[in-house]
Design a protein that fits this description.
29% of the residues lie in helices and 21% in strands. It is α/β, with parallel strands linked by helices and 242 residues long.
Length: 242
Amino acid sequence: MVGIGPGDQAHLSRGAALELGAAEVIVGYRTYLQLLKEILPAGQQIVGSGMRQEVERARLAVDSALSGRRVAVVSSGDAGIYGMAGLVLEVLLATGRQAEVDFVVVPGITAASAAAALLGAPLMHDFAVISLSDLLTPWDLIKRRIEAAAQGDFVVVFYNPKSRRRVSQIAEARDVLLQHRAPETPVGVITGAGRSGQRVVVSDLERFLSVEIDMQSVVLVGNSQSYVRDGFMVTPRGYRIT
């Protein structure tokens, strides 16, 4: 299980690069494999597939590994954070043959870290990461998690905030946060972090919905202490600096 980071090869860890180079079979979502095309050595079997084919990818990877081949399953960001690590491990455990495979997760830079780095220092205190995709999780449960994070004054990072079919969730999430946070609370919208054409916009809780948001975006909402100064978004840790 290899986390390839946000996409820029500069953010691919040395451990991830070594595992990719040593693999006989590389399995992943086609878009992520495209990000690696310049560094993958010739002679490897590359197996790409589309969205919503995660179970098929996991089964193919497990079958290949159980046949004795060295397999790398790639995920953007970190494979263990909304990535393929959990699914592949579940599929492997379901076979009852997990002792035959050396299952290893190689961590990567997740989208929250990549986005925060572009904003300044917004994650310096407790934060919650919540996916707004209700494909696998009921929306009512997601809303309860948003409510809990809002009540706890966590900085909130939203993954999968909006897609072509799913457009209302980010607005509902904002409405929940506005019940607990001031309209001027800083919000960063980062799209394509670490990739060509990345966009970074700093707004606030009242107005950020006017910013272009899609599935490649991460929306980072500050807590009650967060502020913006000279273009930097900061969440104080609590140190006395005066």
